[in-house]
Structures are given as structure tokens and as C-alpha cells.
Amino acid sequence: MDKIQNMFNARLIAAGKHIEVSNQFKKLKTDQERIVFTLNLMQQYDIVPSATGMPKNAKESEKLREEGNKVFVTGILNNTICIDALKLYTKSIAFAPYPSEQLARSYANRSAVLFKLGLYSECIQDIDRALALNYPDNLRVKLYLRKTECLMIMGNHSVEDTLKEAQHWLEKMSINDTSRERFTAKLDVLHNKITQTKVNKNTKVKTEETPALPIIKSYNNEVPCASDAVAIKYNERYGRHIVATRKIHPGEIIAVEKPYALILVQENMQTHCSNCLRVCWANIPCNYCTYAMYCSEECRNIEWEKCHNIECVIFPAVLEYSIYNLDLCSIRLAVLALREAGGIEKLKTMVKEVDEHDDPRTKGFSQDGKLHSNRYIGVYSLVTNTEKRSVSDLFKRSFDTSFIVYFLATRTVIFGAKLPEDLSGLAKNNDVTFIGSLILRHQQIIPSNMHSFGETQGLEHLERGIAAMPFFSLINHGCDPNILRHSRPEHIVIYAMYPIEKGEQLLDNYGKHYAVMSKAQRQQKLFKQYYFICDCIPCQEDWPLYVELQSYQTLVKKPEDKAKIKKALKKFNMYVDLATIGNVPNRPYIIKDLLKMIQVLHDCAPMPCEEMSNVIETLKRVYDFNGNICEIPQIQK
Ligand SMILES: [Zn+2]
Ligand SMILES: [Zn+2]
Ligand SMILES: [Zn+2]
């Protein structure tokens, strides 16, 4: 997108209109006016969006499969290589036309990687998919043999039918086929194995266990997902913010919020489900586009009804302009809003009511006086920072949005029917520019409010998706936050980390923590993205980075306090070791103990303090074991 925008700017400069256009744009008052203006400008300077939409393509599928083969068949196998090959085969599956031999072959090749990685039930799924398609007859024996092996490893004794199928296809193979001998030998080995019924019972099939969601003791009257220990407040200085209505203890659950929208980041499409976001090593594709992939047909159907029947042609088209996840999210929000409202006119009424609402504290609340996380107005009412944005920032977003809305109008039936590819015609269409204005608004809301939806992979914390959260977005930033959050399959859970006094503000961290970033850097980055100057305590007192933090042994003067801390931290090193090897999910007493350490350090040591930072990091890690995990399958020797 940047490239095309640069080209556009160059045309403006060449025409000597750069400053004039910038001044005109600056005067525009609403997002809808900005979209009308940009569409007309594109028409005037002949910037017409075009994209192939990356359709299914047998050649591309074959190319990707061959790349997969190069990695998998000719490389020295290790985990990384297997995963790389798997991703290439999955991409090849996405590009293969449905139904086709290419699709069958890609499933078959991926089943070999899944077998190598010990993912036997996924391997069988892929084999069955290949066999149900036009997989070549002379290769079928190989798949039946692989399936037999999987079944045997999984402890399934009834493999006779599968072996019979293998025998059947072996007999059909040409006498001259050089693989025939090898398959015959393999078949004999497997035959002997079942007659001896020596089944490897040690291989257990893993199933993903999801720990139950934590329960909030007493719910909030205004915010259904939150505890009544907090309340939404508003003032000039902090805008909307969240404060404690009573003393909150470390570890208390503040909220369990289900995002209004949750979207998988592009980078995870080959390894996670677009709909439920769970890890899946044997994804199936959308039958129409080359982008979306799913863990199951059920998820594919759910997402189709929810939003993908619109996104299916849009995402691949806009992706050709190498756009960001935020652009995809801005489209998703518009589609969900439209579905929720039940039509464009109803959606117009819905947002008009929010625009006319004059109490800033309760903006986005529903008629029942509550802020619901599953209603669009909760997202729509989040801060946009429009008036603080530069002309170039707003223009860039307006330009991106105009491309998106052009594709929406001309390639989908979101406006009743596909509209003609005529920029000035679209600029005159109120429905088009209204939806454009919403997407442009999302483009401003997202960078200031969206949350990363995470997962743990080994010792790393990674981004799985992006979440739009009406309540959670109201929590302001602090460079030493007093809450922490972690992601569950469909929710984000917020805990109190420090003791929080009645009336005190809850603070989240927007990725700029005092321990890893200098004050100057934090302040600069926060201002650039969120348009505020942080005045939290670490900023006021200019706390040192983690490497310069002092131990409580230096900081604490009173011997009795020192002794208290020492006693509380007794088992800390052991917990660190357990957390590092990941051996904590079923030991809730560790969390309890860590929370107690926080309380004692909070009471007895001045902040910042090295031990507090260490305890917090360990606690986060322990919480994350109950959250989303992406376990990389290990190669089977
Ligand atoms: Zn799924
Ligand atoms: Zn699709
Ligand atoms: Zn700060």
C-alpha cells in the first residue's frame, strides 16, 4: 500500500497540487467527507484499485508443493524443517482448486509430515481427504500403508480393512512400477506386526485440555464482563478510565472479556484456525479463496455465515497491496457491525444514537445502561484521536480505506449488488461512503485500542490474533501496570497484580514497560501511537531499567522487614525453575505463593525492586500455562 501511496503523492507533487490538496483535506470535518474526497481524488489522478484476488491456481499449488518437497524430502529433517514443509504444503492446499488432483496430492504430502511429527490422527484426516479426492490410483497403496501404521501406533487393532485396501491397490499397480517391491515388503512387515499384535502402547494421543475460565465473584452492574470491584469513570485528564471501588488484592479477577471481534493475524493462517484461532496442523482451506483456513468444516461454515462470505473476496484482494492486520480488522468490524444491525439503514441509526449521546462516560452503553462487549457500539465509541492526528496520518488511513471500500462495493454484494467500477459514482453513493467512514474510524480506533491476543510457545509469548475489547480498552496505560492479562481460547482474563487501593486507577501496559525501555523512549512511543504524555509513577520518578534495579537487600533498611521478605521468597527460585521447564499447570499453590510474595514485597520494600520484577515475570508465566499454548510437535525418530 505504501508503494501506491508514494506513487499517488508523486503525481500530486508533479501536478503542483500537493499543498493545495493537503489544505483541502485538513478542512474536512467528518470521516465520511474524507472518504468522498479521497475517492474523488483517486478518480482525478487515475488511481484505480485493481487486484487479481489471488484465485485458486493449480500451477501455484504445484509450485508450493514442490517447494515443500524440496524442504521435506531433500533436507536433513528437524522440527523447524518439518514445520516449514508443513506450512508450504498447507499453502499449496489453499491454492489447489476444489476438487482437484493437486488438492489430493498436497493433502497426501502433508500427511507424510504429520506422520513424521507424530500427529497421527491429523495424518489420517489428511489421508482420508486425499483418498476422497482424485488421488492417483498407482499411489493409493502408499496412503493405505501410512494409515495402517498410524492406526497401529494409536493402538487401534482393527486395521485389517485398511490393509486389505492397501493390498487391493498394490495389485492394481503396474508390474513395472519400481516402488512395487518396496510397498510389498512394507505390507508384509505390517501384516506380521498385527498378527503378533505388538502395538506400541506408549504413544498417547494428545488432546488439548482447556482449563475452566476463572469466575468473577460479584458482577458489575454496568459492565457484564467485569467485577463490581471496579467502575468506569470519566474526567478531562484521563478520559474514560477504570478505578477500584474497594481494595483489590493481588490475583483477584477484574474481568473475563470475550472480544467483540477476534481476528487471526495473517502470519498464523497456516497453523491456526481462522474462526476459532486454535492451533491446527492439518488445516482445510476455504473452498473459494486462497486465504482463509480452518480446523474443521464446522469452523469453516460458522465463519462463512459470520463474516467470511464478504471477506472471502476482499481479504485476498487487499492483501495484494501488502496491508497490515489492522486493515483486515477494520474490515471485519464493519462486516460484524452490519450483520449485528441487520442492514445499513439500521446501522446508520445505531451509530447516530452514539454520536448524539452527550455523556462521555456512558458513550457506547446500550439502552439497558450497560456496556456490552458483544455490541458494536462498545467498539464504535472508543477513542479515535482524530483531532490529534496529522494530516498525513489521516490521509494515509483514508487512502487505505478508499481501496478497501472500492473492493467491497465492486466485488461483493454488501451494498445489495456489485456496483460499477466507477470511483466518482461510489463517492456519490451514501451507503458506500458511510461504510467507508466506519472503516476509516476503525483504522483510527484500532492502533489506539486493540489488544494483542496471545499464546505461549516454549518460553516465548507470541501474538495469535488481534482483539477488539469494549471494556478492556478503557483501562489506561501505566509503565508499571497494576493488572495483568492473559488470553484463553475465546477470552482475555484480567487479574490484579499489585494490591490496588479504593479509588486508585487500574493500569494496563501498552507494550512500553519501564523495565525494558527508557523513559524518553516510552514517552516518545506512547505519544506517537496514543497521543498522551505518560505521568505514571515510574515516569515521574524516572525508574531505572531492569538491569539496574536494586535488590530488596539494599533497599530495605528495617531488619524485620528484610526477614519477612526473605521468608516469603523462600521457594521463589524453585518456582522459577518449575516455570522455566513448564511444570506448573496443576499446581495452583504456586500462584497463591507468588501472590503472597507480591503482597509482602509491596508492603515492605520501596519500588522499584529487582525481586518484585522477578516475581511478577514468573507469575505471568505461570498464568500463561493456563492460557493459550502453541506446542510445536516434535519429530518422531
Ligand atoms: Zn476452528
Ligand atoms: Zn474464502
Ligand atoms: Zn509512564
TrEMBL record:
> Do you know which PANTHER family this protein is assigned to?
SET AND MYND DOMAIN-CONTAINING PROTEIN 4
Q: Per UniProt, what is one Pfam family of this protein?
A: SET
List the catalysed reactions.
L-lysyl-[protein] + S-adenosyl-L-methionine = N(6)-methyl-L-lysyl-[protein] + S-adenosyl-L-homocysteine + H(+)
What gene is behind this protein? Smyd4_5
* Residue ranges of domain SET in the record: 211-511
| Function as written in the Swiss-Prot or TrEMBL entry | Protein-lysine N-methyltransferase. Monomethylates PRMT5, modulating its transcriptional activity. May also act as a histone methyltransferase. Plays a critical role in cardiac development. Acts as a key epigenetic regulator of gene expression during cardiac development via its dual activities as a methyltransferase and negative regulator of HDAC1.
Q: Name one GO biological process term.
A: methylation
Q: Can you say what this protein is called?
A: Protein-lysine N-methyltransferase SMYD4
MYND-type domain span: 273-312
Give a GO molecular function annotation for the protein: histone deacetylase binding
Sorted alphabetically, which keywords does the UniProt record give? Cytoplasm, Metal-binding, Methyltransferase, Nucleus, S-adenosyl-L-methionine, Transferase, Zinc, Zinc-finger
Query: Single GO cellular component annotation?
Result: cytoplasm
What SUPFAM superfamilies would the database entry show?
Answer: HIT/MYND zinc finger-like (SSF144232), SET domain (SSF82199), TPR-like (SSF48452)
**UniProt cross-references to InterPro entries, sorted A to Z:** SET-MYND_domain_protein (IPR052097), SET_dom (IPR001214), SET_dom_sf (IPR046341), SMYD4_SET (IPR044421), TPR-like_helical_dom_sf (IPR011990), Znf_MYND (IPR002893)
Q: Where in the cell is it found?
A: Cytoplasm; Nucleus
Q: Name the major location.
A: cytoplasm
Name the Gene3D superfamilies for this protein. SET domain (2.170.270.10), Tetratricopeptide repeat domain (1.25.40.10)
